[in-house]
Design brief:
This protein is α+β, with helices and mostly antiparallel strands and about 210 residues long. The chain contains 12 helices and 5 strands. The two termini are about 40 Å apart.
Length: about 210
């Protein structure tokens, strides 16, 4: 519907108005709580089936360079093509969230036969580009894996966090981040906030 109403180019130019890497699925915020890029990408690989059951996500460390790739395992269709085009935007967006808008990869591989749409979000072509690939991927310097993840998550209210659909352990992380130093609650106080007994709360956290 967005593609029809706005046109393909407009959709790509305004991608961040419709999609954010930190708010796409219940695990996306968890990924961006990672301490560094290596952990973030490794978590994406680890939980790929929770993102999409037909995803094949890889992180390949190739010496001084590394490659992060996403492949959709299904037959060719318009729907698959659109998902692949969105996937490369999500990958680029994630790296820009960590390194800033001026981030430029060493090389990018896309499934499309044209670079027109990608150039909207990565103008200048200061990178190598390979078309007609079997998967979407981005090549970057391995040293970047050590980069710390900046604090890019919006802070919700206590009520918003408690009532969210995130795993209990992740909600606890968000809650602890929202409190000021000296005001961090203990386990009994957290149990009261979640309106469950401490024992039930402990069991839930242990299972996760």
């Amino acid at each position: 519907r967005i593609l029809i109403n706005l046109g393909v180019v407009s959709f790509y130019e305004n991608f961040n108005q419709y999609f954010k890497s930190t708010t796409m699925g219940r695990f996306s915020k968890h990924f961006f709580q990672s301490p560094n890029l290596l952990t973030l990408l490794s978590e994406c690989v680890k939980y790929q089936n929770f993102l999409r059951s037909n995803y094949e996500i890889r992180l390949d460390v190739l010496g001084v360079t590394s490659k992060f790739s996403v492949k959709i395992n299904e037959k060719e269709s318009i729907g698959k093509t659109i998902c692949e085009e969105i996937d490369i935007l999500r990958i680029v967006d994630a790296f820009k969230l960590v390194f800033g808008e001026k981030f430029v990869p060493l090389e990018i591989g896309i499934t499309s036969s044209s670079s027109q749409k990608l150039e909207v979000v990565l103008p200048g072509r200061d990178y190598n580009l390979k078309l007609n690939q079997a998967e979407s991927w981005l090549l970057f310097k391995t040293d970047l894996l050590r980069t710390e993840i900046p604090n890019i998550l919006d802070k919700g209210t206590v009520s918003d966090i408690v009532q969210s659909q995130h795993p209990e352990s992740f909600k606890v992380e968000l809650l602890l981040d929202s409190f000021q130093v000296g005001e961090i609650p203990n386990l009994d106080e957290l149990s009261e906030i979640f309106e469950i007994s401490r024992r039930t709360f402990e069991r839930s956290l242990f299972r996760e």
